[in-house]
Structures are given as C-alpha cells and as structure tokens.
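Researcher: Structure prediction, please.
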Amino acid sequence: MELPYLPKGREILYVGEDNEFMRTAQQAAHELSLDPEHPTGAVVVREGQILGRGANGSRYHQEHGCQRKKNGSPTGQDYDLCPGCDPANHAERRALDDARSHGHDLSGADVYLWGHWWACQWCWEAMIQSGIEDLYLVRGAAEKFAKGNGNK
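Model: Predicted structure follows.
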C-alpha cells in the first residue's frame, strides 16, 4: 500500500507485535488515548530505554467523535475539519513532548508507533527536528490499521 506521506531519505521499519517497545506503544494507546474509535500510541526509545510515551486524541474526540471520520475524509486530509485531529494531538507528537518534558535529548532515539500504518507530514517533521533516527510500525500495520477513512 502506498503511503500518503514519507519524507525523502526516510523509511519506515517494521517489528512484530511481540517487540517489547511495540507492546509498550500498544499499552500507551489503550491507557492514554482519548480517541475511542482509533486509539494510537507511541513511545520514544534510545539505547533500550523508554524516554517518553504518548497517545492520540482529545476531549473533543471523547465527546463528539471525529468529524473527519464522520465526513469520510481520507487519511491524512482535512485535519482542519476536526478540532481533535490537530497534529499536536497525535501520538508521535505527544510521545516526543513527554520525553522532552522529562529533560531527554531525543537525538538518535527511535519512535515505535502502534495503531497506525504511516505518520503524517507534521509528525515526521517533528520527529526529524527532534533528531529521531527511525520510525517503527508493527509488521502488517497497513492491513491491520488502514481502514480507508481518516484514522489518525
């Protein structure tokens, strides 16, 4: 499946669901996500240590659902239609913010993302600016999480 966005010179790497960091990202999705329709979680890892955790969603999602999904917007589009879909509410960005809030330098760290099959341009830009080395998704993420509608 073609990715909606991938920065030049970057690739997405894949690990099994049994990977300890992917399991932690999945746990973050289930424990922290404010999007009941599509929980997504991320962890920032460097040298085998988890530096930060984050999950997607907002109070708006909890109370009203996702306007993009209701409208049938394609994944990665129409973020302006849903106040809860602001890229600041994405799991990757929240994990980066959590790691920085604990004083961590993110240079050379990796992000493990569970619950999605790609990362949007805003999240990629934030990861690159933070010095993130690699992005890992769960093997089979496209089949598991691509639903045809906006699902971030």
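Model: The longest helix spans residues 20-32.
Researcher: Thanks, that helps.
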